What does this fold into?
Amino acid sequence: MEFNFEELNAEEIVEQIHSLFEAKKYSQLKEILVEINPTDTAVILEEFPNEQKIILFRLLPKEEAAEVFVELDNDVQEQLIASFSDTELKEVIDELYLDDTVDIIEEMPATIVKRILRNTDSETRASINTLLKYPEDSAGSIMTPEFVDLKKDNTVEDAFKRIRRTGVDKETIYTCYVTDKSRHLIGVTTVKELLLHEYDDKIEDFMETNTIYVNTHDDKEVAAQLFDKYNFLALPVVDMENRLVGIITVDDAIDVLQEENTEDIHKMNAMVRTSEKPYLKIGVFETWKSRVPWLMLLMVGATFTGMIITAFEDKLSALIILTSFIPMLMDTGGNSGGQASVTIIRALSLNEVDFKDIFKVLWKEIRVGIVCGLSLAAVNFVKILVVDKWLLGTEGITLTVNLVISLTLFIEVIFAKMVGCTLPIIAKKMRLDPAVMSSPFITTIVDAISLLVYFGLSSAILHI
Amino acid sequence: MEFNFEELNAEEIVEQIHSLFEAKKYSQLKEILVEINPTDTAVILEEFPNEQKIILFRLLPKEEAAEVFVELDNDVQEQLIASFSDTELKEVIDELYLDDTVDIIEEMPATIVKRILRNTDSETRASINTLLKYPEDSAGSIMTPEFVDLKKDNTVEDAFKRIRRTGVDKETIYTCYVTDKSRHLIGVTTVKELLLHEYDDKIEDFMETNTIYVNTHDDKEVAAQLFDKYNFLALPVVDMENRLVGIITVDDAIDVLQEENTEDIHKMNAMVRTSEKPYLKIGVFETWKSRVPWLMLLMVGATFTGMIITAFEDKLSALIILTSFIPMLMDTGGNSGGQASVTIIRALSLNEVDFKDIFKVLWKEIRVGIVCGLSLAAVNFVKILVVDKWLLGTEGITLTVNLVISLTLFIEVIFAKMVGCTLPIIAKKMRLDPAVMSSPFITTIVDAISLLVYFGLSSAILHI
It folds into this structure.
């Protein structure tokens, strides 16, 4: 039976499965399910009520079942495990890659974890326990201990024999690691190299000896970035004694990169990332917890801008028109600073910029600030004349008032760019997360600077 | 000679190469260069003056030279090509993967492009010209036409023979594509599958027939996201007649994902992305061009908030203390809206949220807005009492003024969350980029709403 997922949308498939289910046409159902990519099967499965989910899941062949299981949401995994017999549980766990088992265990309640561990052999259990001990953000926590290891005096033929014998259980076989007797990593080769060499060639004669690796305790983000930089398919992970203990595969590296990007984007916008769950699965209270701390801090921080305005209250009541332009000045300053900070934060996280570049960056941002400030001030000057004065006939706008506003704009944009570009670099130097030094935080600082410039210029030029 | 890049930093290596260069110890130099990963060699090479760069580059073995060449900056590539003889140029181009050649050609001036094309054989030239025609953001523009293709009646042995014969020039050999006589894609298998089957097994008996693919004209971001979703190493690309014309490899997909993330982050902060170059390589004028349009637009957009303030001028001069809290109210509103919009934009780009979820999202954000608004208003009420009134002794703060401010806060936060979460979803539905509907834009809208609520409540409660 031909079946193309691309041509049908998920809803149609769910409907089709539904009707086959009702008609109890299980063998036909099985045929369809097998044809669908496990990732999609997982999405489809979640559309069905609990008991039906379990029946559908049982229709899947062993290997496919494990692949689907990994892609399911944690709560569905929990439901399924609860309905599994011990034999069924063991079958699924046996098919899983170890790093996936560990990921699942980390999200399960203690009773289920115990059941999972009880249904694994002692060797696997030991590996799981080791993996569970690595800190959450470490390279160790995302590696798998299942890789192809070779000896340097192996021939190409030996290597292929070994891969054929043990490869089925490995997440990747394409990068093979050469270790010595004490399990130190001494080289790397690939199946491509193996295929392009003669059967009796020795591994040590063509293996790559200058291997890039990470330590189990290195940050997983650092590890993931190496994939981006060097185009790896897998990266070896060594322990404190430099013994090869696992590998990270490119699919997990992509997940880390995407997750770190999400985290950065959230941090840049005054949010704490409390959960890696998708948006719709995060509860209201949890969302509140991730959003309210920074809102609170920034709100209280705005006391300073309030104090500045209070201090200049007399001037404002003398020339109330000045108040009308406070929002525009604040927003433009905030946006200008935000642009600079976000650009630098991203450049820092892509390793395009370093602390040693701080003056280069500052000098560039000052010049960008000058041209941005000049163009904005010029447009603003004309806009106030044409729109506010002539078209809207706003009272109190004189040439000098216009001058004060436009001059403030020019100066604040330069300040905003300077503050915006330096704070993230300094934060990184102080081992803080630069992503926090972005728009919302910069805005609060730039607001204060802008108001001071505004009132300072008002006093000087307008003599109020 | 043992040489570990991890243990030395780039500066030390540059120095070491420098001194070997001075001493004209070229064979030792060559040994070092070969040991370094091409990506790092490229970085090191850029530290040397032009003539030395060329000499160093010529020391590299052919294959390594091509790998380094790809990683160099465009201007360095241009310099090198200018210094190459036609034979040298041909050697480098021959070693490059076709998609990399096309990437390079796209960045070179016409004279160099002509020289490159003159030094390739007619078949390659035809492929290059085809690839150059795909739109910039299309899947076709990042694919390579060099892949392993098999026939369905091939045996495993045939497949390995073919890979051994042609694999050296392919970017990846691990995913093999099965095509029929008219080059339609009919199945996929992997080297892992091949290795785990017997030599006389036929490909058609175990190949995967339900293949996920993209069209040459599909968006490259859509293609890249499939790698994230399905954990592919390569993805087939078909033309309008459904013929297999190329593949996208995972390393290029990672580049696209990272590039799209950068673009999103820039757009979210009111910047147009005009260049994919790293921060320090982008000139002041180009940076200005990417930043000033949105600043200008948002600045002019702030005319509305100015108008609102002007309209309520009398009330403000009657109770000047109200002015002091405008910055705090505006920032908190902007930050609250920004949080919601950024969360939704990210969820949209990760496909966690869809247009059909709009009411689910809105209902969640309203509830989040209520709890955030309540907590902020409560803290603010106490803060104004304790800090502004008692500690700072700010004049004019009464219980009703405090009530107006805190109530405004409560209401504006709910509005901000509602506006922030719906605009990106609507933008996507209208085929606009949701990333534009983020903090800066939302802030401008929320500013106006906040001021209207503020002045409305002031009139109603304070009777001014």
About this structure: Chain A has 24 helices and six strands. The mean pLDDT of chain A is 89. Residues 24 and 412 of chain A are 71 Å apart (CA to CA).
